[in-house]
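Customer escalation, tier 2.

The customer says the design service returned an amino acid string that "doesn't look like it belongs to this structure." They asked us to rerun it and document both sides in this ticket. The original structure tokens are below, unchanged.
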């Protein structure tokens, strides 16, 4: 066999990217187990969204609606937005990449927090820009640290609210202070992938800022509370020039026909969204209380407003041992040493049975440690 050497060289900044690690759904030995590693909706998908997906036009040779007109209009009606200023993506991940591509390149800087969403660094490096990683304040977003990191080369700031993987929430006044402290030339991206898990009065007013400010982009997704992760649908809202710039580089038919139909129906099913939020409030509360009882064993929850909790292991039982022990017991959670969190597990709130089960398994490991 002949080796074809050397292969063409990718841009050097591409080889500096550590590939995204998805949440796993099988154990090391290939057993299928309960997956609490990707913040998916344990209640599934709205039945109406499923029906719309199943009933969508199956003319497979036709491209989807490139303008996602019905979806943009449904979003605009629900959130009182201008449909012309709604961008849509193959997941909100695509929108994060679009914004980095439109606003940054070699020589530029993009700021995100140390324990932030892994895609920010990938999107930054992909365009040859430099990630500037700022310290947290006890795992939460530190607005002062972000503002202190701004230089004349800063182009974009990525903030997830609530944040992943920490679950922490930056209140409205802090988001307003962050925006007010940034130069107008810096684009503030508020990633609201988990916003629907907040109660309405907790809203961080990101969308209100995006309505009136020229340097704010809000991103949302149908993957989390709406339970449509498989279809890859995200959206964003910003002023017209930002939307125009992103449209120039997005993939032309980036949301599928069935996905658009499912998303429109999911949006209308507010009952399903409310039931999911209520379920999450109840079982996240219960879970946090149970972990609190393991405090003397060194377990501690970072305060979460999302559908997952970051549990810190500061006693005899290490996060590494707990991760493998839970896998043995049939639960896959997220251990994040690659994100600088070797002492923590991110655990998605599952069904009642799953949440009780993973808690009992954890208690067992604590008692045996
Ligand atoms: C899950 C997640 C997203 C992206 O989800 P998509 O499926 O691409 O829409 C974006 N940001 C954060 C913080 C997330 O956790």
């Amino acid at each position: 066999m002949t080796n074809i050497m050397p292969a063409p060289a990718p841009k050097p900044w591409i080889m500096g990217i550590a590939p995204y690690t998805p949440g796993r759904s099988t154990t090391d030995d290939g057993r299928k187990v309960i997956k609490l590693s990707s913040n998916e909706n344990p209640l599934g998908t709205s039945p109406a969204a499923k029906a719309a997906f199943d009933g969508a036009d199956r003319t497979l040779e036709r491209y989807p609606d490139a303008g996602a007109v019905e979806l943009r209009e449904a979003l605009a009606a629900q959130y009182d937005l201008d449909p012309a200023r709604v961008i849509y993506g193959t997941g909100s991940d695509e929108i994060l990449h679009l914004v980095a591509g439109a606003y940054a390149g070699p020589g530029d800087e993009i700021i995100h927090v140390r324990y932030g969403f892994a895609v920010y660094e990938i999107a930054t490096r992909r365009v040859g820009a430099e990630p500037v990683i700022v310290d947290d304040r006890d795992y939460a977003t530190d607005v002062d640290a972000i503002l202190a990191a701004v230089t004349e080369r800063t182009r974009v700031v990525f903030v997830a609210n609530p944040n992943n993987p920490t679950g922490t929430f930056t209140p409205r006044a802090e988001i307003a202070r962050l925006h007010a402290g940034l130069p107008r030339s810096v684009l503030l991206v508020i990633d609201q992938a988990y916003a629907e898990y907040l109660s309405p009065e907790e809203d961080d007013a990101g969308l209100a800022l995006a309505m009136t400010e020229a340097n704010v982009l809000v991103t949302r997704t149908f993957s989390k509370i709406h339970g449509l992760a498989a279809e890859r649908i995200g959206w964003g809202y910003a002023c017209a020039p930002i939307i125009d710039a992103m449209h120039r580089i997005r993939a032309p038919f980036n949301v599928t026909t069935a996905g658009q139909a499912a998303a429109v129906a999911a949006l209308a099913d507010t009952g399903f969204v409310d039931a999911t939020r209520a379920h999450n409030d109840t079982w996240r509360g219960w879970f946090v209380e149970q972990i609190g009882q393991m405090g003397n064993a060194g377990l501690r929850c970072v305060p979460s407003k999302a559908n997952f909790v970051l549990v810190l292991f500061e006693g005899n039982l290490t996060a590494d041992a707990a991760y493998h022990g839970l896998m043995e017991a049939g639960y896959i959670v997220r251990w994040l040493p690659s994100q600088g969190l070797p002492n923590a597990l991110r655990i998605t709130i599952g069904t009642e049975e799953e949440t009780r089960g993973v808690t009992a398994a954890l208690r067992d490991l604590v008692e045996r440690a």
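Tier 2 assessment: The sequence is consistent with the input. Residues 91-93, 117, 160, 164, 191, 193, 221, 223-224, 229, 234 surround pyridoxal-5'-phosphate (CB under 6 Å). The chain has two domains: 21-44+271-368, 47-268. Sent an explanation to the customer and offered a walkthrough call.
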